[in-house]
Design a protein that fits this description.
Elements: H1 75-81, E1 87-93, E2 96-99, E3 104-107, E4 122-130, E5 135-138, H2 154-157, H3 183-314
């Protein structure tokens, strides 16, 4: 974790952090400490310029360029990010090269002589040979002139196809006295244009009014048809209600007639039963009267017979 820094506070709990040193350690504020520094590393106004050894890319290949706040990755991290055969840009200085991230790599020479040092240092493309070993091979630079006719010369590419000729200075002419457009014709044209515009607006307004009138008539017709449908539905519902009421009344009248007929039958049956009972009672009364008369006659005869027997006994 010393290469890329750490986001975790590694100070043990209960212990105070160590006091800051009186003098910053070497390399502090130069991009080699942790994740970098936000302090401006530029010299203050009036200070002496840095020595030549502190230039962005010193002549010595062992001195890496400054990254200004971003530390160079470790060799392990750089090797994990590289792929064999890919082409990168590196700052070459002899047999060593420095990638843009600040990681140093070694320049090797191929078996066929490809990648040999050609004397051109500085930024140039390199091809990764072995990511684990951090070795690269220089990509040969095309230094020969192309054959004639292969490409268009630069001078011809950027040449002006038509030579520029400076025009003569323009000078204002004399005032056109008596020249110019006919004002009457201009006013007539303006009047015609205004008349056409007004006529077009009137026609558009008329068409819009006709369209609105047609829409209003259609809406009124739809409302009238809807009102007629609602009135027909209400009339149909009223007729249906009247029919149901008439059927109910007829049912009630029929029921009342049945009840009256049943009551009449019951009264007739009761009258017939009363007449039969009267006849029966009249017959029984007649029989009773006859029996009473007969008993009275028998009693008189019995009394008369008793008197006869008493007179005979007295004699």
């Amino acid at each position: 974790m010393s290469e890329w820094g750490s986001f975790i506070d590694e100070t043990p709990s209960g212990q105070s952090p160590p006091p800051p040193p009186d003098h910053p350690p070497p390399g502090a504020g130069t991009g080699d400490d942790g994740w970098g520094s936000f302090v401006d590393d530029a010299p203050a106004a009036g200070a002496a310029p840095p020595p030549p050894s502190a230039a962005p890319f010193p002549p010595s290949p062992s001195a890496a360029p400054r990254t200004y706040g971003v530390p160079a990755p470790s060799p392990e991290v750089a090797a994990s990010l590289l792929t064999a055969g890919e082409t990168l840009w590196a700052r070459v200085a002899g047999a060593e090269a420095v990638l843009g991230s600040g990681c140093r790599v070694a320049v090797v020479r191929g078996e066929d002589g490809d990648g040999a040092a050609d004397g051109f240092d500085g930024w140039r493309p390199v091809r990764v040979v072995d990511p684990a070993a951090l070795t690269v091979r220089l990509v040969p630079l095309a230094l020969a002139e192309p054959p004639v006719g292969t490409a268009t010369p630069v001078s011809e590419l950027y040449a002006d196809p038509e030579p520029y000729t400076a025009p003569a200075p323009e000078r204002a002419g004399v005032f056109p006295v008596g020249q110019g457009p006919d004002l009457d014709a201009l006013l007539h044209r303006v009047q015609e244009e205004e008349r056409d515009r007004v006529r077009a607006e009137v026609e558009a307004a008329a068409r819009r009014a006709e369209r609105e009138l047609a829409e209003a008539k259609a809406a009124a017709r739809e409302r009238a048809e809807a009102a007629e449908r609602r009135a027909a539905q209400r009339e149909q519902r009223a007729q249906e209600a009247a029919r149901r009421a008439q059927e109910y009344a007829e049912q009630q009248i029929a029921a009342a007639r049945d009840e009256v007929a049943q009551a009449v039958r019951q009264w007739q049956e009761r009258a017939q039963w009363a007449e039969a009972e009267t006849v029966r009672l009249s017959g029984e009364l007649t029989k009773a009267e006859q029996a009473g008369v007969l008993r009275h006659v028998l009693d008189r005869r019995r009394r008369a017979g008793g008197r006869d027997q008493g007179g005979r006994s007295g004699t």
